[in-house]
Amino acid sequence: MNKQELFENIKRKESFLCVGLDTDIQKIPSHLLKEEDPVFAFNKAIIDATAPYCIAYKPNLAFYESMGVKGWLAFEKTIQYLNKNYPDQFIIADAKRGDIGNTSAMYARTFFEEMQLDALTVAPYMGEDSVTPFLGYENKWVILLALTSNKGSHDFQLTTDTEGERLFEKVLRKSQEWGNDQNMMYVVGATQGHMFEDIRKIVPNHFLLVPGIGAQGGSLEEVCQYGMNSTCGLIVNSSRAIIYADSTESFAVVAGEKAREVQQQMAVQLKKL
Ligand SMILES: O=c1ccn([C@@H]2O[C@H](COP(=O)(O)O)[C@@H](O)[C@H]2O)c(=O)[nH]1
Protein backbone atom coordinates (compact mmCIF):
# COMPACT_ATOMS: atom_id res chain seq x y z
CA MET A 1 0.00 0.00 0.00
CA ASN A 2 1.38 3.43 -0.85
CA LYS A 3 1.04 6.66 1.11
CA GLN A 4 -1.79 8.05 -1.02
CA GLU A 5 -3.82 4.83 -0.66
CA LEU A 6 -3.28 4.90 3.10
CA PHE A 7 -4.52 8.50 3.30
CA GLU A 8 -7.54 7.66 1.11
CA ASN A 9 -8.46 4.85 3.51
CA ILE A 10 -8.11 7.21 6.47
CA LYS A 11 -10.44 9.77 4.87
CA ARG A 12 -12.98 7.17 3.75
CA LYS A 13 -13.20 5.48 7.15
CA GLU A 14 -12.66 8.67 9.17
CA SER A 15 -10.18 6.71 11.21
CA PHE A 16 -6.46 6.35 11.73
CA LEU A 17 -6.84 3.55 14.28
CA CYS A 18 -4.59 0.51 14.27
CA VAL A 19 -5.85 -2.42 16.33
CA GLY A 20 -3.00 -4.27 18.02
CA LEU A 21 -3.33 -8.04 17.82
CA ASP A 22 -1.29 -8.80 20.96
CA THR A 23 -3.05 -12.09 21.44
CA ASP A 24 -2.10 -13.90 24.64
CA ILE A 25 -3.56 -17.40 24.99
CA GLN A 26 -3.72 -16.84 28.75
CA LYS A 27 -5.99 -13.82 28.30
CA ILE A 28 -8.45 -14.91 25.66
CA PRO A 29 -11.99 -15.94 26.71
CA SER A 30 -12.04 -19.51 28.01
CA HIS A 31 -14.77 -20.71 25.63
CA LEU A 32 -12.28 -20.28 22.74
CA LEU A 33 -9.81 -22.75 24.21
CA LYS A 34 -11.81 -25.64 22.76
CA GLU A 35 -11.16 -24.32 19.21
CA GLU A 36 -8.49 -26.04 17.10
CA ASP A 37 -6.53 -22.75 16.93
CA PRO A 38 -7.78 -20.50 19.77
CA VAL A 39 -5.44 -17.63 18.89
CA PHE A 40 -6.62 -17.50 15.29
CA ALA A 41 -10.27 -17.88 16.36
CA PHE A 42 -9.83 -14.90 18.71
CA ASN A 43 -8.08 -12.78 16.05
CA LYS A 44 -10.70 -13.59 13.42
CA ALA A 45 -13.55 -12.52 15.73
CA ILE A 46 -11.70 -9.34 16.77
CA ILE A 47 -10.91 -8.47 13.13
CA ASP A 48 -14.49 -9.01 11.94
CA ALA A 49 -15.82 -6.81 14.76
CA THR A 50 -13.29 -3.97 14.50
CA ALA A 51 -12.50 -3.75 10.77
CA PRO A 52 -15.16 -1.07 10.02
CA TYR A 53 -13.47 1.26 12.52
CA CYS A 54 -9.77 0.89 11.78
CA ILE A 55 -7.35 1.18 8.88
CA ALA A 56 -4.55 -1.05 10.21
CA TYR A 57 -3.73 -4.09 12.32
CA LYS A 58 -0.51 -4.63 14.22
CA PRO A 59 0.22 -8.15 15.41
CA ASN A 60 3.17 -8.07 17.79
CA LEU A 61 5.38 -11.05 16.99
CA ALA A 62 6.33 -11.67 20.64
CA PHE A 63 2.83 -12.96 21.34
CA TYR A 64 3.03 -15.49 18.50
CA GLU A 65 6.66 -16.52 18.84
CA SER A 66 6.06 -17.29 22.52
CA MET A 67 3.93 -20.24 21.34
CA GLY A 68 6.53 -21.70 18.97
CA VAL A 69 5.31 -23.34 15.76
CA LYS A 70 1.64 -23.04 16.79
CA GLY A 71 2.07 -19.32 17.24
CA TRP A 72 3.67 -18.86 13.82
CA LEU A 73 0.82 -20.80 12.24
CA ALA A 74 -1.75 -18.60 14.00
CA PHE A 75 0.16 -15.51 12.86
CA GLU A 76 0.30 -16.74 9.26
CA LYS A 77 -3.40 -17.61 9.23
CA THR A 78 -4.23 -14.17 10.64
CA ILE A 79 -2.26 -12.40 7.89
CA GLN A 80 -3.83 -14.59 5.19
CA TYR A 81 -7.30 -13.91 6.62
CA LEU A 82 -6.70 -10.17 6.59
CA ASN A 83 -5.25 -10.12 3.07
CA LYS A 84 -8.12 -12.18 1.69
CA ASN A 85 -11.05 -10.56 3.49
CA TYR A 86 -9.84 -7.04 4.26
CA PRO A 87 -7.32 -6.14 1.55
CA ASP A 88 -7.60 -2.41 2.40
CA GLN A 89 -6.17 -2.93 5.87
CA PHE A 90 -2.54 -1.92 6.37
CA ILE A 91 -0.78 -4.77 8.17
CA ILE A 92 2.18 -4.06 10.41
CA ALA A 93 4.41 -6.75 11.88
CA ASP A 94 5.68 -5.34 15.15
CA ALA A 95 8.85 -7.40 15.32
CA LYS A 96 11.52 -4.74 15.95
CA ARG A 97 14.07 -6.45 13.69
CA GLY A 98 17.42 -5.25 12.30
CA ASP A 99 20.82 -6.94 12.00
CA ILE A 100 23.89 -6.98 9.75
CA GLY A 101 22.88 -6.52 6.11
CA ASN A 102 22.58 -10.11 4.90
CA THR A 103 20.57 -11.06 7.99
CA SER A 104 18.25 -8.06 7.64
CA ALA A 105 17.72 -9.16 4.03
CA MET A 106 16.41 -12.49 5.35
CA TYR A 107 14.06 -10.72 7.77
CA ALA A 108 12.83 -8.61 4.86
CA ARG A 109 12.19 -11.74 2.80
CA THR A 110 10.28 -13.30 5.71
CA PHE A 111 7.93 -10.39 6.34
CA PHE A 112 7.56 -8.84 2.87
CA GLU A 113 7.71 -11.87 0.55
CA GLU A 114 6.77 -14.94 2.57
CA MET A 115 4.23 -13.26 4.88
CA GLN A 116 2.87 -10.47 2.64
CA LEU A 117 2.86 -7.72 5.26
CA ASP A 118 2.82 -4.00 4.50
CA ALA A 119 5.22 -2.81 7.16
CA LEU A 120 7.74 -3.96 9.72
CA THR A 121 9.06 -2.22 12.82
CA VAL A 122 12.86 -1.99 12.75
CA ALA A 123 15.38 -0.99 15.42
CA PRO A 124 17.82 1.69 14.17
CA TYR A 125 20.68 0.90 16.55
CA MET A 126 22.82 -1.03 14.03
CA GLY A 127 22.67 1.76 11.46
CA GLU A 128 22.32 2.12 7.71
CA ASP A 129 23.26 -1.35 6.42
CA SER A 130 20.86 -2.94 8.94
CA VAL A 131 17.91 -0.86 7.68
CA THR A 132 18.39 -0.48 3.92
CA PRO A 133 17.69 -4.16 3.03
CA PHE A 134 14.07 -3.53 4.10
CA LEU A 135 13.73 -0.49 1.85
CA GLY A 136 14.08 -2.17 -1.53
CA TYR A 137 10.46 -3.38 -1.67
CA GLU A 138 7.87 -1.36 -3.57
CA ASN A 139 4.93 -0.22 -1.43
CA LYS A 140 6.41 -1.80 1.70
CA TRP A 141 7.37 0.20 4.75
CA VAL A 142 10.06 0.31 7.40
CA ILE A 143 8.79 1.72 10.68
CA LEU A 144 11.87 2.82 12.54
CA LEU A 145 11.86 3.10 16.34
CA ALA A 146 12.44 6.78 17.15
CA LEU A 147 10.96 7.77 20.52
CA THR A 148 9.28 4.85 22.21
CA SER A 149 6.40 4.95 24.69
CA ASN A 150 8.14 3.26 27.61
CA LYS A 151 9.95 4.73 30.62
CA GLY A 152 13.25 3.34 29.33
CA SER A 153 13.09 5.74 26.36
CA HIS A 154 14.86 8.17 28.72
CA ASP A 155 17.90 5.91 29.04
CA PHE A 156 19.24 6.44 25.51
CA GLN A 157 16.72 8.10 23.21
CA LEU A 158 16.45 11.35 25.18
CA THR A 159 20.16 11.75 25.91
CA THR A 160 22.01 14.52 24.09
CA ASP A 161 25.34 14.63 22.26
CA THR A 162 27.89 17.44 22.70
CA GLU A 163 25.99 19.62 20.22
CA GLY A 164 22.74 19.22 22.10
CA GLU A 165 21.09 16.83 19.64
CA ARG A 166 19.02 14.10 21.27
CA LEU A 167 19.51 10.54 20.09
CA PHE A 168 15.95 10.20 18.77
CA GLU A 169 16.49 13.40 16.77
CA LYS A 170 19.67 11.95 15.27
CA VAL A 171 17.74 8.80 14.29
CA LEU A 172 15.07 10.91 12.55
CA ARG A 173 17.60 13.15 10.78
CA LYS A 174 20.17 10.54 9.73
CA SER A 175 17.65 7.92 8.56
CA GLN A 176 16.26 10.35 5.98
CA GLU A 177 19.46 9.67 4.03
CA TRP A 178 18.29 6.05 3.68
CA GLY A 179 14.58 6.32 2.97
CA ASN A 180 11.81 8.86 2.53
CA ASP A 181 8.19 9.50 3.43
CA GLN A 182 7.05 6.95 0.82
CA ASN A 183 8.82 3.97 2.40
CA MET A 184 9.66 4.92 5.98
CA MET A 185 7.63 5.78 9.07
CA TYR A 186 8.67 6.25 12.68
CA VAL A 187 7.44 4.86 16.00
CA VAL A 188 6.68 7.64 18.47
CA GLY A 189 4.91 6.79 21.73
CA ALA A 190 1.62 8.54 22.56
CA THR A 191 3.01 8.97 26.06
CA GLN A 192 5.52 11.49 24.65
CA GLY A 193 2.81 14.20 24.18
CA HIS A 194 4.30 17.58 23.30
CA MET A 195 7.50 15.94 21.94
CA PHE A 196 5.56 15.47 18.72
CA GLU A 197 6.14 19.17 18.06
CA ASP A 198 9.93 18.65 17.98
CA ILE A 199 9.52 15.50 15.89
CA ARG A 200 7.43 17.31 13.26
CA LYS A 201 10.23 19.89 12.88
CA ILE A 202 12.49 17.11 11.57
CA VAL A 203 9.96 14.86 9.79
CA PRO A 204 7.00 17.05 8.80
CA ASN A 205 5.68 14.69 6.13
CA HIS A 206 6.32 11.17 7.40
CA PHE A 207 3.64 8.95 8.88
CA LEU A 208 4.18 8.14 12.56
CA LEU A 209 3.07 4.88 14.18
CA VAL A 210 1.87 5.86 17.64
CA PRO A 211 1.40 3.19 20.30
CA GLY A 212 0.52 4.13 23.87
CA ILE A 213 -3.09 5.30 23.99
CA GLY A 214 -5.45 3.09 26.01
CA ALA A 215 -3.61 0.84 28.46
CA GLN A 216 -0.49 3.07 28.61
CA GLY A 217 -2.49 6.25 29.19
CA GLY A 218 -1.29 8.44 26.30
CA SER A 219 -3.58 11.22 25.09
CA LEU A 220 -5.07 11.01 21.60
CA GLU A 221 -5.92 14.73 21.67
CA GLU A 222 -2.34 15.70 22.50
CA VAL A 223 -0.92 13.40 19.83
CA CYS A 224 -3.24 14.98 17.24
CA GLN A 225 -2.59 18.53 18.43
CA TYR A 226 1.17 18.23 18.00
CA GLY A 227 1.57 15.35 15.55
CA MET A 228 -1.08 15.57 12.85
CA ASN A 229 -0.08 16.88 9.40
CA SER A 230 -1.97 17.65 6.20
CA THR A 231 -2.23 13.96 5.26
CA CYS A 232 -3.06 12.97 8.85
CA GLY A 233 0.41 11.50 9.28
CA LEU A 234 -0.64 9.33 12.19
CA ILE A 235 -1.48 5.67 12.67
CA VAL A 236 -2.49 5.36 16.31
CA ASN A 237 -2.40 1.90 17.86
CA SER A 238 -4.41 0.47 20.71
CA SER A 239 -4.05 -3.18 21.68
CA ARG A 240 -5.14 -4.29 25.19
CA ALA A 241 -7.79 -1.58 25.70
CA ILE A 242 -9.65 -2.93 22.67
CA ILE A 243 -8.99 -6.63 22.37
CA TYR A 244 -9.31 -7.43 26.10
CA ALA A 245 -12.11 -4.98 26.92
CA ASP A 246 -14.35 -7.95 27.73
CA SER A 247 -13.57 -11.56 28.60
CA THR A 248 -16.99 -13.14 28.08
CA GLU A 249 -18.57 -14.60 24.95
CA SER A 250 -19.37 -10.97 23.98
CA PHE A 251 -15.66 -10.07 23.73
CA ALA A 252 -15.75 -9.30 20.01
CA VAL A 253 -18.87 -7.14 20.22
CA VAL A 254 -17.34 -5.12 23.05
CA ALA A 255 -14.03 -4.83 21.14
CA GLY A 256 -15.99 -3.46 18.19
CA GLU A 257 -17.69 -0.90 20.46
CA LYS A 258 -14.34 0.20 21.92
CA ALA A 259 -12.82 0.54 18.44
CA ARG A 260 -15.85 2.58 17.35
CA GLU A 261 -15.44 4.93 20.34
CA VAL A 262 -11.83 5.64 19.36
CA GLN A 263 -12.82 6.00 15.68
CA GLN A 264 -15.41 8.63 16.60
CA GLN A 265 -12.80 10.65 18.51
CA MET A 266 -10.54 10.36 15.47
CA ALA A 267 -13.29 11.54 13.11
CA VAL A 268 -13.52 14.75 15.17
CA GLN A 269 -9.76 15.27 14.85
CA LEU A 270 -9.78 14.58 11.08
CA LYS A 271 -12.39 17.29 10.54
CA LYS A 272 -9.70 19.81 11.57
CA LEU A 273 -7.56 18.92 8.50
O1 LIG B 1 7.25 2.42 21.80
C1 LIG B 1 6.54 1.42 21.66
C2 LIG B 1 6.72 0.52 20.62
C3 LIG B 1 5.87 -0.54 20.51
N1 LIG B 1 4.87 -0.73 21.40
C4 LIG B 1 3.96 -1.88 21.18
O2 LIG B 1 2.65 -1.38 20.90
C5 LIG B 1 1.65 -2.17 21.55
C6 LIG B 1 0.95 -1.35 22.61
O3 LIG B 1 0.00 -2.14 23.28
P1 LIG B 1 -1.09 -1.52 24.32
O4 LIG B 1 -1.76 -2.74 24.87
O5 LIG B 1 -2.03 -0.66 23.54
O6 LIG B 1 -0.34 -0.77 25.35
C7 LIG B 1 2.42 -3.38 22.10
O7 LIG B 1 2.46 -4.36 21.09
C8 LIG B 1 3.80 -2.83 22.35
O8 LIG B 1 4.79 -3.84 22.31
C9 LIG B 1 4.69 0.15 22.43
O9 LIG B 1 3.78 0.01 23.26
N2 LIG B 1 5.54 1.21 22.53
TrEMBL record:
Which spans are transmembrane here?
none
GO terms (molecular function) for this protein are: orotidine-5'-phosphate decarboxylase activity
Residues annotated as coiled-coil are: none
Where does the Orotidine 5'-phosphate decarboxylase domain start and stop, copy by copy?
Answer: 16-255
Pfam families reported in the protein's UniProt record? OMPdecase
Q: Please give the catalytic activity noted in the UniProt record.
A: orotidine 5'-phosphate + H(+) = UMP + CO2
Question: Keywords on this record?
Answer: Decarboxylase, Lyase, Pyrimidine biosynthesis
GO term, biological process aspect, one: 'de novo' pyrimidine nucleobase biosynthetic process
Keyword flag Lyase: yes
Output the superkingdom of the source species: Bacteria
**The protein's annotated pathway:** Pyrimidine metabolism; UMP biosynthesis via de novo pathway; UMP from orotate: step 2/2
- The answer on whether this UniProt entry bears the keyword Electron transport reads no
Give the EC number(s) listed in the UniProt record: 4.1.1.23
Q: What class of enzyme is it?
A: lyase
Q: Which InterPro entries match?
A: Aldolase_TIM (IPR013785), OMPdecase_type-2 (IPR011995), OMPdeCOase_dom (IPR001754), RibuloseP-bd_barrel (IPR011060)
The entry sums up its family as follows: Belongs to the OMP decarboxylase family. Type 2 subfamily.
Q: What is this protein called?
A: Orotidine-5'-phosphate decarboxylase
